[in-house]
Specification:
This protein is an alpha/beta fold and 374 residues long. The protein has helices at 20-28, 47-52, 61-67, 79-82, 101-110, 131-148, 178-189, 201-211, 222-230, 252-256, 306-327, 329-335, 337-340, 353-359; strands at 2-5, 32-36, 56-58, 70-72, 90-93, 113-116, 170-174, 193-198, 215-219, 234-237, 263-266, 287-290, 293-296, 343-346, 349-350. The longest helix is centred in the C-terminal third of the chain and has 22 residues, at 306-327.
Length: 374
């Protein structure tokens, strides 16, 4: 199979879909890899490194899309890339379609086969291709929040861990999954006062057993959210509904009652965000202040640590890329229910139920798509 790796063009996005090590694995399996010039140069993965492991390096993104049967990216295709997709071409990337009807429409019109990293599942009920970036984003959320709490960022002027004789900052994390757990670990390490809210008693028990008295675990209700968010110095939004738009758990009235200079970091912004006042930002202009509360809503947070994130992502995605390349997408999807859960768009049809529901479009189960039938 011919596999294409374009350079990411989203603002301040330096990750790359395949590392040279991943390319070497694909070449050993008999596949051809076409990499756009300078695709990994910003994270010290040179064109020469790709060339040495057998990749073909080309000058333009048009050459990559025209040559490849499968495109492996990190972030969703940008508007300038929509027209480059074609009927039957495989797109493997983070897509986050539920809050992005324009992208969904463009993918359907292209006739491509779009598999979203964020909805591929595993036998443990997890999301194996989302997990590594959730781990990175969770840890980064505290780093970003701590910086945003500084006075020159518009924050309250607080040090997360406080100092002798001065209380630590109150950090509230909404959601106890991969993002929330990693955020809690870092916040506790910085000696903040940390509270996690979640609707799963089982998950709260796991966190309580793991961290004991260092972590406050609270069952999430409207009352609990109101009480803890309005008194917090830093709130991390870490809620995920696979494939679907994130529910708006914190309304504007609650945000308006927070302390002046408190900070909201919405890690769920890729799926629409869990604060009513959230809107996507970029690393070029990451924060804004509304009702006296500073919002950090960068939609590709792991891009700030692009080298670490790229290697973590490739560790997770490579087996799936190999499955598509070795078997072809039809056989790979038929044989693996978990991989099939990643299929969002196929030959003009929406094939993920939660995505279709949020977009108000017809849903067609993957097994009912004519091109996937035996």
């Amino acid at each position: 199979m011919r596999i294409g790796v374009p350079k990411e063009i989203k603002t301040h996005e330096s990750r790359v879909g395949l590392t040279p090590a991943s390319v070497r694995e694909l070449v050993v399996h008999g596949h051809q890899v076409i990499v756009q010039k300078n695709a990994g140069s910003e994270i010290d993965l040179s064109d020469d490194q790709y060339h040495k492991v057998g990749a073909t390096v080309v000058d333009t993104v048009e050459e990559v899309f025209a040559s490849a049967e499968m495109i492996v990216k990190v972030k969703e295709p940008q508007p300038s890339e929509f027209a480059l997709l074609r009927e039957g071409q495989i797109l493997f990337a983070y897509l986050h379609l539920a809050p992005d009807p324009k992208q969904a429409q463009a993918l359907m019109e292209s006739g491509c086969v779009a598999i979203a990293y964020e909805t591929v599942t595993d036998q443990y009920g997890g999301l194996p291709l989302l997990a590594p970036m959730s781990e990175v984003a969770g840890r980064m959320s505290i780093q970003a929040g701590a910086h945003t709490l500084e006075m020159n960022q518009g924050g309250r002027g607080m040090l997360l861990g406080g100092v002798s004789g001065v209380p630590a900052a109150r950090v509230v994390i909404i959601g106890g999954g991969v993002v929330g757990t990693n955020a809690a670990r870092v916040a506790m390490g910085m000696e903040a006062h940390v509270t996690v809210l979640d609707k799963s008693i089982h998950r709260l028990q796991q966190l309580d057993y793991q961290y004991g008295s260092r972590l406050n675990t609270i069952f999430s209700t409207v009352d609990a959210l109101e009480e803890h968010v309005t008194t917090a110095d830093l709130v991390i939004g870490a809620v995920l509904v696979p494939g679907a738009a994130t529910p708006k758990l914190v309304c504007r009235e609650i945000v308006g009652r927070m302390c002046r200079g408190a900070v909201l970091v919405d890690v769920a912004i890729d799926q629409g965000g869990c604060f009513a006042t959230s809107k996507p930002t970029t690393f070029a202009d990451p924060i804004y202040t509304l009702d006296g509360v500073v919002h950090y809503c960068v939609s590709n947070m792991p891009g700030a640590v692009a080298r670490t994130a790229t290697f973590a992502l490739n560790n997770a995605t490579l087996p799936f890329v190999l499955a598509f390349a070795d078997k072809g997408y039809k056989k790979a999807l038929r044989e693996d229910d978990h991989l099939r859960n990643g299929l969002n768009v196929c030959h003009g049809r929406l094939t993920h139920e939660a995505v279709a529901l949020d977009l108000g479009e017809p849903y067609v189960a993957a097994v009912d798509v004519p091109q996937l039938k035996y």
